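This follows on from our talk about sequence and fold. Go ahead and set the record down below:
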Amino acid sequence: MKRKRLTVIAVCVMFAILLLTALDSRLRVVTYEISSEKITAPVRLAVLTDLHSCDYGEGQRELLDAVAVQAPDAVALVGDIVDDVLPEENAWTAVSALAAEWPCFYVTGNHEWWSGDAERICGQMEALGVQVLRGDQVTVDLNGQQITFCGVDDPDSGSSTQQLSQLETTEKENNFTVFLAHRPEEIDSYLNGSFDLILSGHAHGGQWRIPGILNGLYAPNQGLFPAYAGGEYGLDGTVFLVSRGLARESTRIPRIFNRPEVVIADIVPENR
């Protein structure tokens, strides 16, 4: 009887540990390395997507400290930073602090458009010094390297196709080119632009994961078992990174084995 009771207790403890691990919502940092012959010194990008105005502690310190420790050269904000339901304060606290420290580049996500205030949000981003990419491109010097950033609005803007066509015909010289677009399911159309690195979000990591077995159960606009739930994908000479995003309390169902993440993209010389 005593042995049976101990077995039941052990099973309950193991189940509790598994449940706590599955529902772990602590922020993590995931790093990817991209090699290129177009640069001669390393460049580090911090990639933030799908914040959805979520809370990361007083002053958003949990998120901001996680970025600061990585010492990026620039920050990419790849849509759904501002939510259409949750109050915006947390989003602006984070963005204003990030823009005060690093060059920041932003594209809209679907939730900014669902809010009905996407134009105001873009204007507020620009007022904070964030470069808003809407079918245009900008070249900046990062660690002595010429890096070109370009991007498009979310398809819910009604302008993304035209913006992408505009970028496809724009001369990019021989700079390393980073393309920001919120939705990963549109990847086939992005590949026409000959970008070196494509950054997306939106999929929230497929919401439920089984590491090593199932990369994601369901993603918006991709459905069950999404092809691009999160991670690194090599496509026709282009590196495609899909962040699992930062959404926590904004999600309608809990994330399982799917911690929110800051993505670090380390771009390094090919023959270092």
Notes: Residues 28-269 form a domain with the Purple Acid Phosphatase; chain A, domain 2 fold (CATH 3.60.21.10). The first strand starts at residue 28 and ends at 36. The chain has a mean pLDDT of 91. The CA atoms of residues 23 and 88 lie 25 Å apart.
